[in-house]
Every structure is written in C-alpha cells, then in structure tokens.
C-alpha cells in the first residue's frame, strides 16, 4: 500500500496521490475509474464537484505555504 500524499497547490486544487478512496457524506464511494492521482476543488467554481475542472483559472487566489498548527487541545 502506497502512502497517500496531499499537495496544497497555490491558486489551485488539492492534489491527492497514492492509495485512497473518496466518500460522500452518506459514505458512498466515488468511482475514480482506477485513478491514483486526482485533484479536489478548493475554489467552489467546479461543475464537477468535488473534483477540480480548472474553472478556477484567474478566479481563485490563495498562496499555499506550509506552517505549523498550534498544539492540539486536550479534551479532558
């Protein structure tokens, strides 16, 4: 099993590579047609939600830079 990699691309989609499945809110699995690389829409403009169809070109500006999240809160 290959490790799943998610790349947050500037001004673009989330690129997902590896061994993964995508399910809707009811738990139904999307048929990815054997793909091991897909892109998920971040801008909300895609006609193929949740998948990216590149409609964001020139409409979505977001620079993706890695950073550290604050420490996880303890729920005790």
Could you characterize what this model shows?
The chain is an all-beta fold. Helices cover 0% and strands 16% of the residues. It is built from no helices and three strands. It has strands at residues 5-8, 14-17, 37-40. The mean pLDDT is 92.
Helix-strand blueprint:
Blueprint: E1 5-8, E2 14-17, E3 37-40
Antiparallel strand pairs: 1-2, 2-3
> DSSP helix count?
0
Which percent band covers the strand fraction? 15-25%
The helical percent reads: under 10%
| Spatial order of strands in the largest sheet | 1-2-3
* Order of H and E elements: EEE
Report the end-to-end length measured between terminal Cα atoms: 35 Å
What is the domain tally?
Answer: 1
Number of strands: 3
Largest sheet at a glance? 3 strands, antiparallel
Structural class: mainly beta
Using only C-alpha atoms, the radius of gyration works out to: 15 Å
The 3D shape can be described as globular
Features:
76 residues; mainly beta; three-stranded antiparallel β-sheet; 16% strand; 3 strands; single chain
